[in-house]
Amino acid sequence: MKLKVATAAGDIVIDASRMDAVVARRAAKLIAQNIAGKRVSFAGIATPKATPFFERCWRACRTIPAGETRTYQWLATAAGSPHATRAAGQAMRRNPLPMIVPCHRVVAANGLGGFSGSNKVGGRELKLKAWLLQREGWIQGVQPVGKTKRILAANRRKNCNATSKSCRISANRKR
Predict the structure, then answer these.
(1) Are 68 and 145 in contact (CB under 8 A)?
(2) 160: DSSP letter
(3) Would residue 103 show up in a list of annotated catalytic residues for this protein?
(4) Is cis: bond before 144, omega within 30 of 0?
(5) Contact criterion met (CB below 8 Å) for 102 and 57
(6) What's the pTM value of the predicted model, to 2 decimals?
(7) Which domains does the chain have, with CATH numbers?
(8) Helices 52-61/85-93 angle, 10° precision
(9) pLDDT digits (tens, 9 = 90+) for 105-126
């Protein structure tokens, strides 16, 4: 069973088949209230059982503050497996509780990345991800913020050679 919460940019889908129906309905109600502009706490909603790595990823994702983003690399490292970036992406793809586990705050090092299993530019999933980020105050080209931005800049420099002009770091430039 899947529960849907309507937003201006599309439906947020909760995979209720992986959890208690009462918890799923409560999660949907809280998400709907949040979308309506009411301040709510998602702290009382527990994520369903999954692999230990997925659970660590979901726990780490819940620590990302609203309005900020982190990369899949950061998420893999925070979950204890710094070389498991793709697996961290799969954990976000299989997240049964979007917004409660705010997977929309996890982005690729060179852009938005994917959302709900899709990375199709202009697709409804990425439009929803961008909408969720923008309503939290995130502006593409300015974020990611804080440590993540410094980490991204250091990683790009590390991968550049001294003569390459393509290594300039620009917040507004797409690679």
Answers:
(1) yes
(2) -
(3) yes
(4) yes
(5) no
(6) 0.76
(7) 51-158 (1.10.10.10)
(8) 80
(9) 999 888 778 676 666 666 778 8
